[in-house]
Design brief:
The protein has 269 residues and is an alpha/beta fold. It has a single domain, classed as Rossmann fold (3-Layer(aba) Sandwich). Helices cover 48% and strands 17% of the residues. The strands form 4 sheets. It has a 7-stranded parallel beta sheet with strand order 4-3-2-5-7-8-13, with helices on both faces. A two-stranded antiparallel sheet has the order 1-12. Strand 7, helix 4 and strand 8 form a beta-alpha-beta unit. Helix 2 packs parallel to helix 3. The longest helix is centred in the middle third of the chain and has 29 residues. It is globular and about 55 Å long.
Length: 269
């Protein structure tokens, strides 16, 4: 994939989903501190210094169009869209409640699709913009007992790379950020099911390892700074990571046999 260039001097209005907590809140606040006009869309939130809250649910297309239209009314344009809203489920894939599986995809994948579809026409009309998607290293290294979360993030990567080529003629850049372990409230809010513990006796220890790694993971502020760098770089790459360790993981995923990679992941979890 080639890098995509933009005139960063004109990129000053941000719309971000899932900006009421965690990575989204840190990112919205960081952009505001850099002098950007920032709008955050979430189901629960409120205005704060430099950040305008717009209530909406990314799983509802009408909400996404309403919020985008409101940003256009207030600011006239959207320079950068960050699709960040997400949730996670964990447990044995075999026993995952169907409703939870559907919710996982509705928020992480369809939610991103909804807000992106709403924003593209305005970016295309100006022949300018950037769409940044918060994915996960789990898109590349699927995590045991987080099968559906991993699948939702892999779907986001595929969507982003198709959009990257489709929108390039309209000068709209698209990229994914794939964080590793991040210390946020996301860990505590993850939906977990213990069903199947008798069949998968190591499931609980695997999930405990994952949660421990997250609690000792990167800060949301570090992720925010990386997203800001992606928004303002002249040349936008397709994939971004945060931290040397995760860059090494990404490199290994390209160099090592898939069977060896998943043998390593299995030992980790």
């Amino acid at each position: 994939m080639t890098k995509q260039k933009a005139d960063i001097s004109t990129l000053k209005t941000l719309l971000l989903t899932g900006g009421s907590s965690g990575i989204g809140m840190a990112t919205a606040d960081y952009f505001a501190q850099q002098g950007w006009t920032v709008y955050e869309m979430s189901r629960h939130g409120e205005d704060r210094s430099g950040v305008v809250h717009l209530t909406g649910d990314v799983t509802i297309p009408e909400d996404c169009h309403r919020v985008v239209n409101e940003v256009i009314r207030l600011s006239g344009h959207i320079d950068v869209l960050i699709s960040n809203a997400g949730m996670g489920i964990a447990g044995a894939a075999e026993f995952a409640p169907v409703a939870d599986v559907h919710r996982q995809m509705e928020v992480n994948f369809y939610g991103a699709s909804n807000i992106i579809q709403a924003a593209i026409p305005y970016m295309r009309s100006r022949q300018q913009g950037r769409i940044l998607i918060v994915s996960s290293l789990a898109a590349t290294f699927s995590i045991p007992f987080q099968a559906y979360y991993s699948a939702s993030k892999a779907a986001l990567n595929a969507l982003a790379m198709s959009l990257r080529n489709e929108l390039a003629p309209h000068n709209i850049g698209v990229a994914c950020l794939m964080p590793g372990d991040v210390h946020t409230a996301f860990t505590a809010s993850r939906l977990k099911t213990a069903a199947g513990t008798d069949v998968y006796p190591h499931m609980q220890s695997s999930l405990a390892t994952m949660e421990r790694d997250e609690l000792h993971g990167q800060s949301a502020q570090g992720i925010a700074r990386r997203l800001y760098g992606m928004a303002t770089t002249h040349w936008l790459r397709a994939y971004y990571y945060v931290g040397a360790v995760y860059h090494i993981f990404a490199l290994l995923s390209k160099l090592l046999p898939t069977s060896l990679i998943y043998s390593i992941v299995r030992r980790m979890y």
